[in-house]
Design brief:
Number of helices: 16
Protein name: Membrane protein insertase YidC
Subunit structure: Interacts with the Sec translocase complex via SecD. Specifically interacts with transmembrane segments of nascent integral membrane proteins during membrane integration.
CATH architecture of the largest domain: Distorted Sandwich
Family: Belongs to the OXA1/ALB3/YidC family. Type 1 subfamily.
Distance between the termini: 44 Å
Radius of gyration: 33 Å
CATH class of the largest domain: Mainly Beta
Low-confidence stretches: 26-43, 45-59
Subcellular location: Cell inner membrane; Cell membrane
Structural class: alpha+beta
CATH topology of the largest domain: Beta-galactosidase, Chain A, domain 5
Number of domains: 2
Helix content: 25-40%
Shape: elongated
Pfam family, one: 60KD_IMP
Number of strands: 24
Strand content: 25-35%
Largest sheet: 10 strands, antiparallel
């Protein structure tokens, strides 16, 4: 590995480390003060958790009776739904099981039947009283009522010929006046059709915007809470197809003043998304927070504005996705929802195209051949190394040429000693006469950067790897701990990841194998190949096992390839003869070389004209 190769890999590593730190820093928590968060949460509590007037009286025998006047004053035209007994109904297919409640006429439990949580229990995408989806209705007493707090009248579950199932809930507001929520779970789909119907409500609800309150809580599903919170985000897409997002650890409040096509509450591997099918959400106000809890990843409270036109029969159809962050599944919906999967961001946003056009198709193809994801990653690694093989070969050829020229470079360095400009000019002349490209080892290294960053984004985001075991790694989507310390070691962690150790060891072996090709007179060039892998040890210790396994395989293949190429393919004697033949040819300078040489000469002249410091 010549000097320029080392510079290339150091630059590559610096960019990669910078990207990792930037990615983690951009996901750091920026909460507002606790009082503000508590007040926001209080506004979104179920009504029975807030203070409300007593709505019962006692008759002459002492028995409790309903105070109709009190209920009418508190609930307005919706007083019929003020009391009731909770009853549930279930819609399910092979993928999703949804338990609905007549309290609020909304989903109470969302279970993804194909998946389990990290502790092996059923995976509930929605569970607990914090989760609510209801209209906020204005009342005559200048108060508001959330439909999540009243009882609806349920309809019967209907099963349709196409395999879909449906149910509806109604909240009466008068004679032939009601609010209706209709739900249809499609066959073998994660999608639910959710339609809000307002019938003859034009004299009760003012024409204009209605607010739909959507609260959702992400509970711990994975092994690593830190990674889950880094990936707990709210994504949204405007009507003009512009996509944006924020991480719950970064934001506490976001106001979106433009029409929205969809809004998604994303976890590391799953999401709940509300999609406006006809009219768009006119605007949205989102509050979020990260409770100090060992089991709650984050909470979001969104107020979505629905454009109510005051018609006698008004419908607002919504499609709700309850499911995994699987690229192929989300892309098939054709609304850009696959963009919630982090395949490349920031200054390396371009690598998402490497993932989309190369890595994902090959990964899916290999997944169709075998279910062993350790073998799939091995085959993927070999495929990638074949793609970059021309660059790798050119890098080794450049290293071989620099090794042949090393004695002459050492002579020039000894001749000019501390005169770096003179040494640089003579070095350029030597390279030009020998027909050697000084960037031959640097550029191939930089061209591999998109692949390295693409892998850094792809593996931790791939739900296919979730809970897939290989060798000692129980779950390739998280770190492969072989020993837990029980305490935190600064800049390292609280565990030992074996694939990370193997990655570091093979990196050091590769550096040691190339030690004879580096500039041993320069301490940076001499020791950086050994320091850099140790720096990565702490960074990658908590990364997905699939990622460190890939880097380990890549190092092993590099060691094997380099030994084969330099032992059996590259002939140093032929390279030396070719260089000597190139020296005998008339040297032709490129315009760039001429300008560089002219600039160096000018700098030398300026230095000669400068007065030398007097000796004391």
């Amino acid at each position: 590995m010549d000097r320029n190769s080392v510079i290339g890999f150091v630059l590559l590593g610096a960019l990669l480390i910078g990207y990792i730190f930037w990615n983690q820093k951009s996901s750091e928590n920026a909460r507002l003060e606790k009082a503000r968060q508590d007040s926001i949460a209080n506004l979104n509590k179920p009504k029975d958790e807030q203070a409300k007037p007593v709505a019962t009286l006692k008759d002459s025998t002492g028995a409790a009776v309903i105070d109709s006047a009190a209920f009418s004053a508190e609930y307005g035209p919706y007083a019929a739904g003020a009391t009731g007994t909770e009853a549930t109904a279930v819609l399910e297919n092979k993928l999703v099981k949804i338990t609905f409640s007549n309290k609020g006429g909304e989903p109470k439990l969302i279970q993804l039947t194909e998946f389990k949580s990290s502790d092996g229990k059923p995976l509930f995408l929605q569970q607990g009283s914090f989760n609510r989806t209801g209209l906020k209705l204005p009342l005559p007493n200048n108060q508001t009522l959330n439909t999540s707090d009243v009882y609806f009248t349920p309809g019967q579950i209907e099963k349709h010929p196409d395999g879909s199932q449906s149910i509806s809930y109604r909240l009466a507001a008068g004679a032939n006046q009601y609010i209706e929520y209709q739900y249809m779970l499609k066959n073998d789909s994660y999608l639910v059709d959710y339609t809000i119907n307002l019938v003859n409500m034009q004299n009760i609800l003012p024409k204009g915007n209605l607010n739909l309150q959507w609260n959702s809580q992400a509970n711990l599903q994975e092994h690593d809470m830190k990674q889950e919170r880094l990936n707990n985000q709210v994504h949204y897409r405007y009507e003009n197809e512009e996509h944006d997002y924020f991480t719950l650890q970064n934001k506490s409040e976001e106001k979106l003043g433009k029409p929205l096509q969809w809004i998604s509450f994303k976890q590391q591997f799953f999401n709940i998304t509300l999609i406006a099918k006809k009219d768009k959400f006119a605007s949205a106000e989102i509050h979020s927070k990260v409770p100090e809890s060992a089991n709650i990843v984050g909470q979001q409270m969104s107020t979505l504005t629905i454009p109510y036109n005051g018609a006698a029969t008004y419908s607002f159809p919504v499609e709700v996705y309850y499911g995994p962050n699987k690229y192929k599944t989300l892309k098939a919906m054709d609304i850009g929802l696959q963009k919630i999967i982090p395949l490349g961001s920031g200054i390396f946003a371009f690598v998402k195209y490497v993932n989309i056009w190369i890595i994902i198709p090959v990964f899916d193809f290999l997944g169709g051949l075998t279910s062993n994801y350790g073998l799939i990653i091995l085959l993927l690694t070999i495929f990638i190394r074949l793609i970059i093989a021309p660059f790798t070969y050119q890098s080794y050829v450049s290293a071989a040429k620099m090794k042949v020229l090393k004695p002459e470079l050492d002579e020039l360095r000894a001749k000019h000693k501390d005169d770096q400009q003179a040494f640089g000019m003579e070095q350029m002349k030597l390279f030009r006469s020998a027909g050697v490209n000084p960037l031959g080892g640097c550029l191939p290294a930089l061209l591999q950067l998109p692949i390295l960053v693409a892998m850094y984004s792809f593996f931790p985001s791939s739900i296919e790897l979730r809970q897939e075991s290989f060798l000692w790694a129980k779950d390739l989507s998280t770190y492969d701990s072989i020993y837990n310390f029980g305490f935190m070691i600064p800049l390292y962690g609280d565990h030992i990841s074996l694939f990370t150790i193997l990655m570091t060891i093979t990196s050091l072996v590769l550096a040691f194998y190339n030690r004879g090709m580096t500039d041993q007179s320069n301490p940076v060039m001499k020791y950086m190949p050994y320091v850099f892998p140790v720096m990565l040890l702490g960074i990658f210790n908590s990364m997905a096992a699939a990622l460190t396994y890939y880097y380990f395989l890549s190092n092993v293949i590099s060691i094997a390839l380099q030994w084969v190429i330099q032992t059996f393919i590259i002939n140093h004697d032929k390279i030396h003869a070719k260089i000597q033949a190139n020296k005998a040819k008339p040297a032709s300078k490129s315009k760039w070389a001429e300008k560089l040489e002219e600039m160096q000469k000018r700098q030398q002249e300026v230095q000669k004209q400068q007065p030398k410091p007097k000796k004391k």
